[in-house]
Design a protein that fits this description.
The chain has 449 residues and is α+β, with helices and mostly antiparallel strands. The protein has ten helices and 19 strands. Helix 1 packs across helix 2 and helix 4 runs parallel beside helix 5.
Length: 449
């Protein structure tokens, strides 16, 4: 472990002994991050950072103060308490003053911490990256990217004596292979709690293969095309959809695209989406930033919008129970689902390609942004290898296109789902999803590269 539960309990005990709040909670987020970065097929950086933050939320006379510090030193913790007291003195009465006074019992999870990942050395990281570099050099192209290992410990405790602790490991690799002074490229990604389950040879081969096939892209006109979206491209759709509508806060404020649509069909019957922080196949996190046990929440079932997610504040407003999706006390977003799973299908990518008369194979999307949150319209660019499919075969690479599309409309046009679920994500959350074939995806403009 990085610091350990006993060390965090000492911090909590110091705050409990020194504070005069009516009630309080403490969130400690510790991490040990190791990164090996490479460019032009050469490792150019090895860095490591070990740190933690102590976030204190205090409540006094129904007023709330929040502050943080990156230290376990007693004097610094005393200063943290005073900072929170000062903030409270400047606040008006706050309806967010409730702090969880009881939790559902839950076991201590050990399967989220992998010793092989935790013990992976800088030498082993360099050797894993070297597999990729050698593959790129043998293909006379350049490899760029990074291998990252994150060891995280989350500790939560409050003035009611409730405590939670959980350690998690995660390894991730991203590889962009580029040729001819970066004029064409291919992307491949890998992510797992267990680094031994990441196949560096396969990832290198995929990035190099996409890159080599992307050489000399042709210009095509924008319009509506059937598309086969890779895991990375599909993640943008579900990640944005999660952000735009499944938070109880946005729903209560009338900003969610789901307002008035819970219980109604919002996309195709073949789409089922849920959130589950206890599934080790995703990016697990058994409790939220209020210490509440995460519930498995069905968000979309057979195309029908089923539920939204709650933290303590939003649950109280609706007379509900928190689903365990609170963000840290200093966040302004409200609850969010960030352990997503999409039900896979039965088809291979080869099946999808063979079934396509004319369409596009998309490796990844880039610079995706919201256009209209109420109808889930987003926009972005293709990147790192986009290909024309003709008569059931990949015909030639094309220049990048900009798309502007409603996520719900796109998910209403999913023709085929892959049998290849894969974890995508970042340090905050993840999505396990398959590749998808979507009809009539809207591309609105073209590029010169």
């Amino acid at each position: 472990m990085i610091f350990g539960e006993k060390e965090f309990s000492k911090i909590y005990d110091h705050i409990k002994a020194g504070s005069k709040f009516d009630k309080f909670d403490v969130l400690i987020n510790a991490f040990d991050s190791k990164l090996t970065r490479f460019a032009n097929s050469v490792i150019h950086q090895n860095v490591a950072e070990k740190n933690f933050s102590v976030l204190l939320r205090g409540v006094k006379n129904n007023r709330v103060g929040v502050a943080s510090v990156n230290s376990s030193d007693g004097a610094k913790l005393d200063a943290l308490i005073k900072n929170v007291e000062t903030i409270i003195g400047l606040k008006k009465e706050d309806e967010d003053a409730s702090i969880v006074d009881k939790w559902d019992e839950m076991p201590s999870y050990t399967q989220f911490w992998n010793e092989d990942t935790a013990a992976y050395t800088p030498r082993q990281m360099a050797e894993s990256v070297d597999i990729i570099l050698k593959k790129a050099k043998s293909n006379k192209i350049d490899a760029f990217g990074a291998l990252e290992i994150n060891l995280t410990e989350l500790f939560f405790a409050n003035s009611y004596g409730l405590k939670r602790y959980n350690p998690v490991t995660m390894a991730s690799i991203n590889v962009t292979a580029m040729g001819d002074h970066y004029t064409y490229a291919g992307l491949s990604l890998g992510r797992n709690c267990d680094i031994k389950k990441i196949d560096f040879n396969k990832i290198a081969d995929e990035a190099c293969d996409i890159c080599l096939r992307a050489k000399n892209p042709k210009d095509i006109e924008p319009g509506r095309y059937d598309v086969i979206l890779s895991h990375q491209a599909g993640e943008n759709l579900f990640g944005m959809l999660s952000y735009l509508g499944f938070s109880a806060r946005t729903y209560q404020e009338g900003r969610s695209f789901l307002c008035g649509k819970l219980g109604s069909k919002i996309c195709g019957e073949n789409i089922t989406l849920w959130d589950d922080g206890l599934d080790v196949n995703g990016q697990p996190m058994p409790f939220d930033f209020e210490g509440v046990k995460k519930e498995k929440v069905m968000l979309i079932e057979n195309g029908v919008a089923k539920n939204i997610v709650y933290d303590t504040k939003t649950a109280k407003k609706d007379g509900k129970k928190s689903t365990g999706h609170a963000l840290p006390a200093n966040s302004s977003y409200g609850p969010l689902p960030w352990n997503l799973f999409v039900k896979p299908g039965e088809h291979s990518v080869e099946d999808m390609i063979k079934s396509t008369k004319k369409g596009l194979l998309v490796t990844s999307f880039h610079y995706v942004n919201i256009v209209n949150p109420r109808d889930t319209t987003i926009t972005g660019m293709t990147r790192n290898g986009t290909f024309m499919i003709e008569d059931g075969k990949i015909a030639y690479p094309i220049k990048n296109l900009r798309f502007t599309e409603s996520i719900c409309e796109a998910l209403s046009n999913v023709e085929m789902l892959g049998n290849d679920p894969k974890l995508m994500g970042d340090s905050f959350g993840g999505t396990v999803l398959p590749t998808m074939k979507i009809k009539n995806f809207n591309f609105t403009s073209k590029t010169e590269f």
